[in-house]
Amino acid sequence: MKTMHCIRDIAFLLFWVCSAPAVVAEDTPTEKSRQEQAALAVINRFTDGQMKVKVALSLEKDAKNCDRYAYSATSDELTVEASSAVAACRGFYDYIRSKHAGYCGWSGSRFQMPEDMTQDTVTMLSQFRDHQYFNVVTYGYSLPYWDESRWDQEIDWMALHGIDMPLMLVGAEQIYREVFYEMGLSKAEVDEWEVGPAHLPWFRMGNLAGNTFDGPLGEEWNRRQRALAHHLLDRMRALGMKPVCPAFGGFVPKAFTRHHNGTTESTGWNWIPADCPNYRLNPGSTAFVEVGRRFLQKWEQEFGVSKYYLSDSFNEMEIPSSTATLTQYGDSIFKSITEGSAHPEVVWVTQGWTFVYQSASWGNEKFKALTRNIPDHRFMALYMSPEYGPDKCWEQYKGFDGKEWCYTMLPNMGGKSFRTGNFSHYANTYLTNLYASSVRGNCTGYGITPEGIENNEMLYELICDAGWTPQNGIIDLNKWLKQYACCRYGQYTDAEDALLHMLCNTVYSTYIDHPRYGWQTGTNITGTGNALPGDSFYQGLEKFFSDTEALKRRCSPLLEAELIELVALYVSGYVEKISAKVLTLADKPEAAGRLIDELDDLMTDLDAALELHPLCRLQRWEEMAVEMAETDSVKKRNARNARRIVTVWYGHHTYDEPVQDYAARLWSGLVRDFYRPRLVNTLKQRLGMLDSFDHIAFENAFVAAAPVLSEARAVEGDHIEFLSALIQRAKSVGAMAERPDAPAGKSFFQSESVQQQINH
């Protein structure tokens, strides 16, 4: 037996050496050259090769292994010295923004050659060794259908924003299949366990299982995901990133115990009924370590060796009351990782959401029990987050008792479109609190763990900047706002200054938990949503559009994208107010009917505005899902899964679940074909204008129809003129709601000046 273990250990060592790109020391010439070339490739794509840049990984990291960069420029060449490829990209990006010469975002990027390139040397030392990115559920709300091209854009975005520790969870399901097949399970037994692509995060964390969630994934999905995982890991490792890959958390198909001894328990979840449980192995069973070890062995044989592996066993579910049981879980997970991985210093990473969200059920003693037998440098918690839970919750855990941890921001739940977040807190307060804490412990990292991305770009830019600010440095928001406007919009007039400061004083002055409008929540159409930006927001946006002609002359594509989102919030707030007012008109059926018609038309206009945005379109989301499939049946299933996750969420929708309408997206397609007809018919039913309206049947039919959408109203004229008219239209209908017997103004689409340009 000892001989077999020696042979296995020697094989692992040889495999680790052969898999050098994943773990080669950063100071070897080969790896250094590789990273320099990878950084230059990112920079060249961003600048379209227009700028002469020299990158040299010539700087050493500091005593805490934190990255640094230094940049300087002559009249014709920028030189960036750094301690890693990601630090070099971040240094380049900071130089470009210091010159107001560019911006990299999800809705688009901008670059122009600086008029004066010269720059004396500027240096920066990060305060953190690790810059982490992604939440497990980002893989459901934003990432499930991305192809190589979209992922390549995101990896460039990460590098330019100084992110070097992304979660990389693509490709795990095929590896699990291979493990379970070897252990005697049939394809049918695994098929009945799996879920569709967008629901994989909760499947991976043990919250649910079963192919009522548009599963199973199928062979073509797994084949494509395997190839995609290779591509992503190659790119991340070339940049010197530290991808956090998947590890076993104990979850197995229900059929597993028919083939192996060892008990399982069903796992329930806080958020949906307990009729679709996953199953978790008892941590004391030999099968727990065996499955985890086999999984990582196969993972590394396929994808190479990594240092960091993610395993979560208690996400939003009951925490064992016994500290002995928690220790057993910790020991089994860590043993499966160390025996399965060939990396000599492999680290178990876990999401710290459970420690915040369920802090009352944990406490320091339970955390210490979970990690009792794990060396401090072999465990990392991703602390999530200062927006939720007790203030400075890490202090409850005594800085995680010497274990490594990352301090991450969670600025978005579900990819919701409403803008929220306290700018001054993200810029300075959160990190000031961390630095000042006497029980900060071994905080090695900083990051962003949003549930959904491709939204609220302004806030993400600020959060990334805070992670690359000196410990005693303070972000001056006035200067930051000017730089943001100059870099993204291409100019900073008094109007932009007023607009951005208005945002800081309204939507960016506080954090709203789960913001959405009442009309986005099923039958709750009563004006009780919490996504109301306030009068100052409405007045500030109206003022910005007061000189439409001047705005049209200076408006850039990225400013237009920003304005579409802001106007959508403006109009949505009026829809909230108007829909609530309609319900007070039961004794005035004629006025109520006219107001509902106007509301219907206003929401169609809102949808037309969102159709102009590069991201805010349901059709784009569903097309990505369809393009990930090869056969018609899988295309249909993927589209249905994509539509389900942003609407009803649940697998077999029969009643209002807590997660229904959770994503709350302001997207074209969703507004015109889902929110609008549901709202209009619900209002009519409540006022007795319809005998009945079965909203559950309507919602299920909408999901089943994917990816078919009605045609959006077309905007053939000037977009800024249209947005300005839409603001006035919303005000007009809002005034009508206050005086239901007064006439309302015409829709933008009803005006003679544009009627000939419209193709309904």
Entry summary:
46% of the residues lie in helices and 9% in strands. It is α/β, with parallel strands linked by helices and 760 residues long.
Task: Outline the secondary-structure elements.
Blueprint: H1 2-18, H2 29-47, E1 53-56, E2 68-73, E3 78-82, H3 85-98, E4 102-104, E5 109-111, E6 119-125, E7 130-133, H4 138-141, H5 148-160, E8 165-166, H6 172-182, H7 187-191, H8 200-204, H9 219-238, E9 244-246, E10 251-252, E11 264-266, E12 279-281, H10 286-303, E13 308-310, H11 323-340, E14 347-351, H12 353-357, H13 364-370, E15 379-384, E16 404-409, H14 423-436, E17 442-448, H15 457-466, H16 477-489, H17 494-505, H18 535-544, H19 548-554, H20 557-582, H21 589-611, H22 618-627, H23 632-645, H24 670-686, H25 695-704, H26 719-738, H27 752-755
Parallel strand pairs: 1-3, 7-8, 7-17, 9-13, 13-14, 14-15, 15-16, 16-17
Antiparallel strand pairs: 2-3, 2-6, 4-5, 10-12, 11-12
Helix pairs in contact: 2-3, 5-9, 6-10, 10-11, 11-13, 14-15, 16-17, 17-18, 20-21, 20-26, 21-24, 21-26, 22-23, 24-25
Structure description:
The chain is α/β, with parallel strands linked by helices. Helix content is 46%, strand content 9%. Among the domains are: 124 residues, Chitobiase, domain 2 (2-Layer Sandwich); 240 residues, N-acetyl-b-d-glucoasminidase (Four Helix Bundle (Hemerythrin (Met), subunit A), Up-down Bundle). It contains 27 helices and 17 strands. The strands form four sheets. The chain has an eight-stranded parallel β-sheet with strand order 8-7-17-16-15-14-13-9. α24 runs antiparallel to α25. The termini are far apart.
